[in-house]
Write a structure and sequence with these properties.
The protein is α/β, with parallel strands linked by helices. It has helices spanning 11-19, 110-139, 149-156, 158-165, 167-174, 197-208, 220-234, 249-262, 289-304, 306-311, 344-365, 384-389, 391-397, 404-416, 446-463, and strands at 2-7, 31-36, 47-54, 57-69, 73-79, 83-94, 97-108, 188-192, 212-217, 239-243, 268-271, 315-320, 371-376, 427-429, 432-434. The strands form two sheets. The chain has an eight-stranded mixed β-sheet with strand order 10-9-8-11-12-13-14-15, with helices on both faces. Strand 4 (57-69) and strand 5 form a beta hairpin. Helix 4 (158-165) packs across helix 5, helix 8 packs parallel to helix 9 and helix 9 packs parallel to helix 11. It is globular and about 75 Å long. The structure holds NADP nicotinamide-adenine-dinucleotide phosphate. NADP nicotinamide-adenine-dinucleotide phosphate binds at residues 193-199, 217-219, 222, 245-247, 272-275, 293, 320, 322, 377-378, 380-381, 383-386, 407.
């Protein structure tokens, strides 16, 4: 098979996307799964394990990079029981992008060789279609997802809503996803809570895609270990660690000052660090911990980093909230959960609700500044945080929880996908916008939104 197409993209970006066969399922619909099985940067010797769909059978193929000359040429060899494939990709720069040339040579053995004459035309047609799909993916013009009236209703129904949070929701949603081919190469991402769970999965995936990471963590030893592991697995050496306990506002401010002093524009800020506290506790600054970590801290950090977000040509803020906020309304008289009986889940939900309100306000305020703001919730994912703070829930739901990678998928998508940044201020789950309220009971008044921001500013000025 020999196919070719022109692509209005930089050769480096096209090369990087194509040779990373761990993402081949995005454009080759005959491949059911793909993982990179060797560590380090993609280079000669990098291997990928793929599963190819052949009727009802899943056929394993092991691909290995045989030649690697970025960004012009790569040769990959795939070996399966019945055949060997040699794929040669050649990319040449053109006046408005590049020209991609793809040659695939297939050699069949044993029983497969006998049936080839019968299915040869089908194999060729599938190959041609695959390269067409690759060309389409590289056009990077996927439609912008919208909140449909049907989704609005479905969100409010308990069974589909709850199923949507589980791994089944992820599996159902992913059938409709578009490839993400925009480049993350050298994009500066500041990520909180990268030492565990969803943050760790996000850091790993963004490092694999070539981003430059600043990881914010409270535990220096753990953070250094994580950074080294990610570098070893992905070959990405552009990972820096900054230490701050994000529930301590003085430390958040110091962190902000350090980043401002360094002056590196921020393409993506991900407010992900989180925890659920039982029983109630206060920080050394005498602030209730859920409010401090989940709302006041991202508020202070995001506003402080505004100049660096503005300096990047098109930046994104991603707030990791929670579906837990659906059941609650912001309570300005009880931001620190001092009234009534304390329940960690309620304090957590209120703070997450507050963060979503702030995300919507930043989206409006920064609409002309080139900064987009995305609120999201990851569904229910099996992470150390969930195991520790909700052991009963984790035990009961073990079979339906998502993996950390599935929970992190929408964070990575919001950081990377071109179409995500055609929007701002929406609330996302599984790459689709969702409603922020399931009942009128939880909707705050405009005056309450203003008052929330005033209160957060008051806290900030009292503390620094
Ligand atoms: N997993 C889910 O099902 C789920 C559902 C809805 C929302 N979320 C949200 O997703 C985010 C990630 O949660 P996860 O499940 O991945 O939890 P996780 O495994 O416990 O990870 C939480 C991360 O936040 C960091 N962190 C916690 N307190 C911190 C502090 N005071 N200062 C600095 N960093 C701190 C942790 O650092 P250490 O490693 O040092 O502990 C860790 O890196 C959270 O905002 C959570 O509320 C998760």
């Amino acid at each position: 098979m020999h196919e070719a197409f022109d692509c209005p993209r930089a050769p480096q970006d096209v090369f990087q996307y194509i040779v990373d066969f761990s993402r081949i399922t995005e454009w080759d619909h005959t491949i059911l799964s793909a993982v990179k099985t060797t560590s380090g940067k993609i280079a000669v010797g990098t291997a990928f394990d793929l599963k190819y769909s052949m009727g009802l059978r899943k056929v394993p193929i092991r691909y290995e990079v045989m030649e690697f000359e970025p960004p012009q040429r790569a040769v990959l060899k795939g070996v399966s029981r019945g055949f060997t494939a040699i794929d040669t990709v050649t990319i040449t720069e053109t006046s408005n992008g590049c020209h991609v040339d793809w040659r695939a040579e297939l050699e069949f053995r044993g029983a497969s060789a006998k049936i080839v004459p019968l299915i040869e035309r089908r194999i060729t047609a599938a190959g041609v279609q695959t390269i067409k799909d690759l060309a389409k993916a590289l056009r990077d013009d996927a439609p912008t997802p919208k909140l449909s009236p049907l989704q609005r209703v479905a969100d409010k129904l308990i069974v589909p809503g709850v199923l949507g949070f589980s791994r089944f929701g992820h599996q159902h949603a992913e059938k409709h996803w578009q490839p993400v081919t925009a480049s993350m190469r050298d994009k500066h991402v500041v990520l909180t809570g990268a030492t565990s769970g969803l943050g760790l999965a996000t850091a790993h995936e963004l490092a694999q895609r070539g981003a430059k990471l600043t990881l914010i963590a409270r535990d220096a030893v753990k953070a250094d270990r994580v950074a080294k592991e990610i570098t070893a697995q992905t070959g990405n050496e552009q990972i820096e660690v900054r230490i701050a306990d994000l529930s301590e506002i003085a430390q958040v401010v110091e962190l902000g000052k350090t980043l401002l002093k360094k002056g590196e524009p921020i393409d993506v800020l991900i407010n992900n660090a989180g925890a659920l506290f039982n029983p109630r506790r206060e920080t050394s600054e005498r602030i209730e911990a859920s409010f401090a970590l989940l709302l006041l801290s991202p508020f202070v950090l995001t506003e402080q980093l505004f100049p660096l977000l503005k300096q990047a040509s098109s930046s994104r803020v991603i707030n990791v909230s929670s579906g837990g906020m659906y059941g609650t309304k912001i309570n300005l008289k009880n931001l620190e959960s001092e009234r009534g009986q304390y329940r960690g889940a309620d304090a957590y939900a209120r703070a997450k609700r507050g963060l979503v309100i702030m995300g919507e306000r930043w989206a409006e305020r920064w609409a002309d500044e080139g900064i987009k703001v995305h609120n999201m919730h990851p569904g229910w994912a099996q992470t150390p945080g969930v195991e520790e703070s909700l052991p009963q829930f984790a035990k009961l739901t073990r079979r339906i929880l998502r993996s950390p990678e599935e929970g992190a998928d929408t964070i990575v998508w919001l950081a990377n996908a071109t179409e995500a940044n055609n929007t701002s201020g929406l609330f996302w789950l599984d790459r689709a916008p969702h409603t922020t309220h399931l009942s009128r009971r939880t909707v705050e008044k405009p005056s309450e939104r203003d008052a929330l921001e005033d209160l957060l500013r008051e806290y900030r000025s009292r503390l620094i």
